[in-house]
Amino acid sequence: MRKRILTGDRPTGKMHLGHYVGSLKNRVKLQDSYDQFVMIADVQALTDNFDNPQKVRDNIKEVLLDYLAVGIDPKKTTILIQSMIPEIAELTVFYLNLVTLERVLRNPTVKDEIKQKGFGQSLPAGFAMYPVSQAADITVFNADLVPVGEDQLPMVEQTREIVRKFNSLYGETFVEPKPLLGDVKRLPGIDGNAKMGKSLGNAIYLSDSEDELKKKVMRMYTDPTRIHPTDPGKVEGNPVFVYHEIFNPNKTEVEDLKMRYREGKVGDIEVKEKLFVALNAFLTPIREKRHEFEGKDELLNQILTEGTAKAREVAGETMKKVKRAMKIDYIR
Ligand code: TRP
């Protein structure tokens, strides 16, 4: 039996380079050796977008197109929509008994998001509890591995705690899932912010056109202390060079640029123009693949229908085991 992967994304916007290096790349690589499930987490997206369901609805297709564009293959990976697997909601309710309120509110990612979103005194209970629901996402498929970005580590940790609690109370039922980070831990935004994020307005999207890409690269943050191209510049932590290291396959060119930058022998413009060429070469096949699927609504619906049906079967089997373990399988 192949080991299982479960991971997913909230459909709140298009996916960007940070998603690619953090998780998408791993998914494409691992779909041949794992039984992989990828979830479009609409229920989770609604926890802070309940007043804007149209946004969530529209982005389901965008996220699906991003998946297909990077090479997630529906023949190898099961792609599903979270709300269409009601077993996840059911399992969430059982898990809510196994965590304390205090523990959920201590989850560092949730804490950050609460601050960032400015909920103040009107924190929706559903939002605060979403890590518990995420534990249900992962375990209803009994996943071994969860490829995610660094910000999701607390979710996997909390899932592991819930699994241990469940297993010790009701008997061995679930495996403890492990997180898998991408080889780039965190991609900075084009504004120099440590993290690229949809809500931060500093992202390069996988679907950005050549023009959009060029504009974004040319206004990227570099070394703020460098005024003239003849000033010696700093390469370390400079986002333009961070991106060069990751996305420019021409290592000789990167080394040459770094050397000249440090010596004040190259302007920001040249460094950025070369980065644009590298990024554009990386994004072109992704863009093309996206275009191949765009507008093929029937095919897209079929992918989701088939994926969701397969996922439901697995989830249903898990719930039978859960109910037996919890002694609530009254009439068999
Ligand atoms: N919380 C994840 C994010 O914001 C999305 C997600 C939902 C997820 N369910 C999941 C990730 C299960 C991994 C496993 O990106």
UniProtKB/TrEMBL annotation:
SUPFAM superfamilies assigned to the protein according to its UniProt record, in alphabetical order: Nucleotidylyl transferase
Keywords: Aminoacyl-tRNA synthetase, ATP-binding, Ligase, Nucleotide-binding, Protein biosynthesis
Pfam families, A to Z: tRNA-synt_1b
GO cellular component, one term: cytosol
InterPro entries: aa-tRNA-synth_I_CS, aa-tRNA-synth_Ic, Rossmann-like_a/b/a_fold, Trp-tRNA-ligase, Trp-tRNA_synthetase
One MF annotation (Gene Ontology) recorded for this entry: ATP binding
Membrane spanning stretches: none
Enzyme Commission number(s): 6.1.1.2
Aminoacyl-tRNA synthetase keyword on record: yes
UniProt catalytic activity: tRNA(Trp) + L-tryptophan + ATP = L-tryptophyl-tRNA(Trp) + AMP + diphosphate + H(+)
Biological processes, Gene Ontology terms: tryptophanyl-tRNA aminoacylation
Protein family according to the UniProt entry: Belongs to the class-I aminoacyl-tRNA synthetase family.
NCBIfam families listed in its UniProt record: trpS
Protein name per Swiss-Prot or TrEMBL: Tryptophan--tRNA ligase
UniProt organism field: Candidatus Woesebacteria bacterium RIFOXYD1_FULL_41_28
